[in-house]
Amino acid sequence: MTQGKILISDKADHYLLKLVGDVRLTLSGALNRYMEILFGKNQVKSVVVDMLDAEGVDSTTLGLIAKLGLHCRECYQMNVKLFCQNPSIIRTLECMGFDEIIDIFQQSPNDFDTELQSLEEVSAGVDEIRQQVIEAHKLLLRLNPQNSAEFTDLINALESEQ
Prior knowledge:
Layout: E1 5-11, E2 14-23, H1 28-39, E3 46-57, H2 59-76, E4 80-83, H3 87-96, E5 102-105, E6 117-119, H4 126-143, H5 148-160
Parallel strand pairs: 2-3, 3-4, 4-5
Antiparallel strand pairs: 1-2, 1-6
Helix pairs in contact: 1-2, 2-4, 4-5
């Protein structure tokens, strides 16, 4: 698998996050900080997550995407549009309940002609990373309580270390 990276674009209140390769925990700090900036915006017209070039995505990253989807729905009254053609990732998204809060498309969109910049990794302390992992997995549980069997032990273990 190709090492993961996240590319971003924001033009005229339209935001694009492109996940490439194998996106893992090491990028969650940068993604979380970028989302906090996005959440501070008063005007957001659209948010797109492009996973067409994603080979793999870990559960923490999925939790952050759930956070993005829930925030956009609650604060901007819109659904995030997610594009993905990887059958394994699509199956995971559907099993976790993402199709309830995010519009998932399996075809390539026509309007992705934009310059992208790389979202750089952010060094974070162990406590900050632990908190991000806990929050991400709690959001996955909120999204679909059937995820409980997979994530409850992890959440409990991480919370006991605090």
